[in-house]
Amino acid sequence: MPIKVLEKEIVSRIAAGEVVERPASVVKELVENSLDAGSSQISVEVRGGGVGLIRVMDNGAGIPSGEVELAFDRYATSKVGSLEDLESITSLGFRGEALPSIAAVAQVDIVTCAVGESVGSYLSLKDGLAGNRGSQGRSQGTTITVRNLFRKVPARLKFLKSPATENSHIANVVSQYALAFPEVKFTLFIDGRVAIRTPGNGQLIDSVVQVYGLEVAQNMLAIRSRDEEWEGRTATPSPVVTGMISSPAISRSNRSYLSFFVNRRWISSRLLAWAVEEAYHGLLMMGKHPVAIINISLPLKEVDVNIHPTKTEVKFQNERTVLGAVQKAIRRTLIELAPVPKIEEVAITYGAPSAPIQVLLTPAEIGSSPAYSPPMAEQTPAVSLPVLRVLGQLSSSYIIAEGPDGLYLVDQHAAHERILFEKIKHQRSHQEVEVQGLLEPVAVEVNPKQDETWKAHYENLAEFGFSIEPFGDRTYLVRAVPVLLHQKDWVGVVRELLDSLSGEDEGGWIEKIAISIACHSAVRAGQELTYDEMRELIRQLEQVAIPHTCPHGRPIMIRLSSEQLRREFGRG
Ligand code: ADP
Ligand code: MG
Q1: Pairing of strands 467-470, 475-482
Q2: 16 lines ligand 1 (CB under 6 A)
Q3: 531 to 55, 420, 521, 537, 555: CA distances (angstroms)
Q4: CB-CB contact of 530 with 369 (8 Å)
Q5: What is the four-CA torsion angle of 174, 177, 178, 182, rounded to 10 degrees?
């Protein structure tokens, strides 16, 4: 075939393939347009997994009647006018590709009424070509209806998943924008029923309640902004990290609860996800992931958003600074704000069965946490654990203690695990591990898989105080073990580690080894402790950086506040 320039229609179809991958991409583009138009209310309606119908209605600026048709031309945009504009994009859209792309693969109707116009206009498009047009009454704003998506693109239709799956992608898109724009009232109707409805009152926590539910919302911590740090200085911090993160009390089994917004644009970034998870290291059980809504604001010139047609990836001028700022903000929030779980409700009713004790954190508490002191934050012990006075032991498992603000029940095993975990990590990184030589070396035989793991990583075990040398076929001689494990089942620890340590990176190894040693050497539940032992344990707990959860992420203590006690005894 001779070389020729492609027909407009073919170009649009090819371009549409990049922008409109599935029904959720249409929803994303239309919602972004509504947000760019300054809407305070956006309603999304879908039927048949979005293939049947997608309708997005907003109360934004609208399109002037003379520009409606133009909006469907390729590269037609009101958002970028010059090359310089491309360097500092404040809008979500800028490529002028969405409307023509959608019109190329579906039937589109638009009704819009611009600011200052008394009557609205409508336009119907089929196969990307304008058909019926005219004027129609409408309050200010825009409604775009997309029907029969991909009907003329069978290859795409075939690739789509079940309506339920497509619906879940659509719900995710609306959820993400609801989290990014808490000041906008979002409604999503799926096949006629309300799937999401946010109040649009500007409170992120209220969007979280609607998107993730009450249980998650009650366990979210507001990220401490760096304002205090910069008070009195002339320079503005960059980047500024805001949003909310889950306390270690809850977790999820996958990473889909991590949301990132850069200058309010929803983006995906494996590096940012990694940075968040790193900040939670040692706070969540292996294989568990946090919930996080991370807003990153930085000067427009420090981020390039024009990387990909779907605009879901960005390039930071200084990536390490951004990752570092996110990690620091999260770590600081976790250390300072994760409060001691509190017994919210102890119903003691005589004659009737008592209600279960609930450990809850109210949104109000999130806000009333102690103030942040910037300079020494990372080194100083957490501010939220007060000095405690030991009263006694319960069921040989829990230490009862009194604090200035009520009664504390401390899980002795979890508490000791946390203390030892931090001690072990500190000793390793300062090369101060305490080692116990064995009177007689012990031969340990391992299976082939364990053998591989051991060969690859016995240096890591050595850093924690194990002295091991090869001794024939799949057998090793152990000459020394960490002091903490002397007289304990250290062979069990080694086998457990060799079984669980495949496919981790170095950080993961170190964490797992420290957790395993801490877990096996900590006092057990059911072990009676003397008063002095309990006092020593509590004193050490007061020193650790994160006194609220054990390294597996379980809570160490619960608190019954003085106020609750007074209330329960009828003196409040
Ligand atoms: P882009 O968003 O990249 O500019 P689009 O193809 O998505 O490109 O939209 C083209 C233009 O149509 C936009 O620049 C905007 O002027 C107008 N437009 C689209 N949707 C809306 C809307 N909901 N409200 C107001 N104007 C809109
Ligand atoms: Mg757009």
Answers
A1: antiparallel
A2: no
A3: 68, 20, 20, 10, 23
A4: no
A5: -160
For the chain, 572 residues long, the average pLDDT of each consecutive 10-residue run is 78 72 95 97 96 97 95 84 75 86 94 94 92 93 97 86 87 95 96 92 93 86 68 65 92 88 93 90 80 94 81 87 91 74 40 32 32 28 67 93 88 94 90 88 83 79 88 86 89 83 72 90 91 90 82 84 83 62
Q: Write b or e for each residue in 406-432: b if 16 or more Cβ atoms lie within 10 A of its Cβ, otherwise e.
A: bbbbbbbbbbbbbbbbbbbbebbeeee
> Ligand 1 pocket: which of 99, 115, 122, 305 to mutate (most atoms <8 Å of CB)?
99
Please choose, from the candidates 401, 405, 406, the residue with its C-alpha nearest in 3D space to the C-alpha of residue 388. Answer: 401
d(CA 412, CA 427): 22
* Best CA proximity match to 187, nearest among 55, 311, 62: 55
Strand blocks (E) in 152-278:
185-190, 193-197, 220-222, 240-246, 258-262, 265-267
Instruction: Please name which of 52, 36, 13, 74 lies closest in space to residue 145, comparing C-alpha atoms.
Output: 52
| Orientation of helix 319-337 relative to helix 270-279, angle to 10° | 30
For the CA atoms of 266, 270, 274, 277, the dihedral, rounded to the nearest 10 degrees, stands at 50
CA 283 to chain centre: 14
Nearest CA to ligand 1 atom 16: 78
* Closest listed ligand to the CA of 81: 1
Query: How far apart, in whole angstroms, are the C-alpha atoms of residue 485 and residue 348?
Result: 44
390 lines ligand 1 (CB under 6 A): no
What would the two tokens of residue 430 be? 């300062």
The answer, yes or no, to whether any atom of ligand 1 lies below 6 A from the CB of 418, is no
Q: Whose CA is nearest to atom 23 of ligand 1?
A: 34
Q: Which of 262, 192, 287 is nearest to 512 (CA)?
A: 287
- State both tokens at 234: 């002339």
Q: What is the DSSP string of 68-111?
A: TTGGGSTT--SS--SHHHHHS--SS--SS-HHHHHHHSSEEEEE
- Nearest-atom index, ligand 1, CA of 78: 14
Q: Rounded to an integer, what distance in angstroms lies between the CA atom of residue 375 and that of residue 493? A: 39
Exposed (0-12), middle (13-18) or buried (19+): which is 497, by Cβ within 10 Å? buried
Cα–Cα distance between 436 and 490 in angstroms, integer? 12
